[in-house]
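Appendix B. Extra example for self-study. Work through it before the problem class; the solution is given directly after the inputs so you can check yourself.
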Amino acid sequence: MSHRVVVTGIGVLTPIGNNLKEFSDGLRAGRDGIAPVTHFDASKHRCQSAGELKNIDFSAHFDAEELPYLSRGSRMIRVAAAQGLAASGLDLSVEDRSRIGVVLGTNLGGMPADKAGYAALHYPYRRGRAKPKEPWRALVLESFICAMSDQVACQYGLGGLSLVMSTACSAGLHALGVAMDAIRTGQSEVMLAGGVDPLSEMPQAGFGVLRSLASDKLRPFSKDRDGTLLGESASLWVLESEAHAKRRGARILAELAGYGGSTDAYHMTRPDETGRGPARAMQAALASAGMAPEQIGYIKAHGTGTPANDVIETRAIKQLFGEKTQVPVSSIKAMLGHSLGASGATEAAAAVVALNDGFLPPTLNLETPDPECDLDYVPHRSRPAALEAVLTNAFGFGGNNAAMVFRRWEG
Amino acid sequence: MRHDDMDTRMADATRIVITGMGAVSPYGAGVPALLGGLTEGRSALRPIEDFDTSGCGCTHGARVPQGSLTALTGSNNLRRAPRGTQFSMLATEEALQMAGYSPSTWAPERVSVFLGTYRAMAEVSQDIWHRIITSEPRFVQPLLFQETVTNAVASALSIRWGWRGTNYAISAGNACGFQVLTLAAQALRGGRADAIIAGTFDLFTTATHFDMDDIGVLSGANVSRPFDTRRDGFIMGEGAAVVVLETLAAAKARGATVLAEVAGLGVAHDGHAFGVHHREGRGLASAMRQALQAANVAPDAVDYIAAASNSTPSLDRAEAAALRTALGDAASTVPLSSIKGLLGEAESASDMFNLLACVGAVRGGGLPVQAGTEQPEFELNLVRTSQGHRPVKAALAHSYSFGGNAGAALVRALSQQE
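Solution. Structure tokens for the complete assembly:
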């Protein structure tokens, strides 16, 4: 017994749009969301730009009393959750909330943006041993990653499976996958899923010393690519069984048709050069959807812009789709930056947008073709396309790979 | 093939069994040390010596003795690995040995590692922040930064043994052991893996001890006494535990020794208020009910309960209420103990310690003793003394977090015929 899983609502906060409509417009226009960092003093960092959220005023979304108790991560996921639920039209007051769960991808959760924020929270930096009071207590509890799913479960009174998936840069996609499994197996009829990661000085420093960050621009698949750029985002999806969505007359955005994962078992930070790990994840996602590579009209690549990822991902796609494949592939990270544990789910939303709004999001900054990266990467400008099914990838540190297939819903 | 054989084979493909287990606890390395200490009722709580606790109300803890890790084999890099990786790898070595593992036991693509943790790699990210705060971002240690991702431990295991199935690293408060088991059971039943290394790890550090002390959740009296009227907070513990999970069909097919069956699982969230659990333990009651229903075991057929209470006033009270809701009158008759009286609150590691305690119990190894508790507040059948030879067919392990996460597992011995 396996239930079909459908998407009925998506809320997103991204550097190029603060809801799904704005996000779609930004993707179509090829909007560049990268800018100098403002969340922390980046002057001492190797890299000083990132994709931060823009034009978002959290005080418009929360009571003045509650706001100081919420980390940036919590604010982001709570706003995305309100959006996603509103878009789905799901009336929680008539649902059995004891069976609705929430699964989110995150790396940092409620981690503070800068060193002053961290020092204010944690021993031995915070001043004095006078017992600090609220909101300090709440923010310390927020600094653990599972605070993100706890926040959503508590806000909406959800009693089902609640957890965060924290597998580096594939976390958001695995989160959607775990939620999909919960519905397929009948454990739940409705699941909330997605991802959230705020921009923080900690990974900006860490990826900096690992020499993973770009010197100026993120140039996916370009010969002169020299690294990724970080970003922040959140997305919250409402997933339902087909039967549940139909019963309540929901508008269905797409079918979440399949999901798969794999591990390289190769190296902590370097991906396996053969590309077999990502290829197995894509193959598993297709198998889970009961589909063949020929049925995929677009691949939303992981496309970090690091020298290793983009060539290996290209290799993996060719292994599965054929050496001469014409399938369009694009990386949207040049627009968004890499929002780590959130990116898998946020970028999956772009794949659903491509499917529904009929265009291929572009790969920006692809100025110099790389002979080893010779697919159709939809450079510079978006392109209209009638799509039936799309595939989205997310790969992470530790050789952790995930892929997912969405199919157009003819309802 | 006869129909009942076919039915049995199909049922076996959905039954989840444990074929190996490993632990690193404040008693040191190994499941025998853990189960021995628990059933003898030997406390692992000590004054903290490896950092200065002056100014803290609570000065005790249950640390994993560093000397107990000498059994570590494997890669040379391991001694420089974060403690969470060391603990988990040692526990995995033990579990694999018990499972009769050799490199040809499973296809590498068919083995997954699912790990849960509350504090994730906090011990590592603290060091990164320390560099940023006291020095400059460019002096952050790259080899340390790569260990900050929560899945660093799962990756280290997959690299060490060459496993290429999907890895998960999850967090669900300090109650994520049963979430891990639930995801693993789904993956095994769905045919996505032949074996899953499922476990949890959590550590306490100077910073977490001080932060928790200042939040006011640690015991100022330096006593862990779950369910006692005088309980005033918990004492921090740490460790890691791992089980090898397979379907009964797969275990039989390879002739593995089955240690116990995970016959029912339940996971839930209070959905109440952030950082504050529900007064009546709503989520925990739901998790326990789910586990019993899935295993088709009536409350009065449960022979032992490994409880979650950690000696804090509100959590213990909520657990007592949840037991009443889920088990009815059996709540006051089923033998029950919280190992946190002996080991402190090892957060997600406690979940798997509870599971292992139940496996030990259904294998005839005796019940963990309820230490510390002298004046019980609730009507519970606490295991007050060592009970070596009590027959246990079904045991219930559970966990409950301040954040509202809850989980439970019903553990059962297999009969000779199975």
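Self-check: The first strand of chain B starts at residue 16 and ends at 25. If your reasoning did not lead you there, revisit section 3.
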